[in-house]
Amino acid sequence: MESVAKQIRLMQFPLSLFGAQVGRRVTLIRLNSGDVVIHSTAPFSRDDVAAIAEFGRPAASLDATLFHDSFARQGRAMFPDLPYFAPQGFEAASEVRTLSLSEPPPAWRGELDVLLLDGMPRVREHAFFHHPSRTLILADLLFNFGPGATGWTRFFFRHVEGIPNPPGTSRLFRLIIRDREAFVRSLRTMMDWDFDRVIVGHGDIIETGGKARVAAALQGFLRTGLSFA
Length: 229
What we know:
This protein has 229 residues and is α/β, with parallel strands linked by helices. Helix content is 27%, strand content 23%. It starts with a strand and ends in a 7-residue tail after the last helix.
């Protein structure tokens, strides 16, 4: 388990995509109450569950996109009594019962914001902002594989997924946007958040200066003259 802020811990699990080692990152967010929100499911072991409990009281788990159903059953099995949140349509893909991320718990209010990235009905990714640590938490909106990734992983995301200069948005992600205006409106709302650190679901985190790097990545992709402060 890696500590990146007083109230944020990270866990990493193996996951392969066409031979690229993309990994599954789990972000643990401890609220001021001591409750822990588990962002993303994974093949948790009993030792993992114990480590999470040492960090704080597990209070909720979630998956932030329809594309993250790989470990839903395993994650749910290890935390069967927790409320489990996911995007609309996630139950059909995972066959695991969920609560809607469109109605996050009142206990998160003021500490953990949730935003649907609109315009992508096949994905329904939700971005999260942890106010106390100024941390933006993403799933698949941006990938950020640097020199520490395997050669094939870097090649795959550079040449197959079309990300020459990470962080960036994958070619697949770009193709499944159905309502560009709605998507851009969501990005504007996200960029209004006062974040500095960025935790991506796959790849290296951006410890500081994240807002400028996210703005640059999205600016090049959107090609609409957007300007983010």
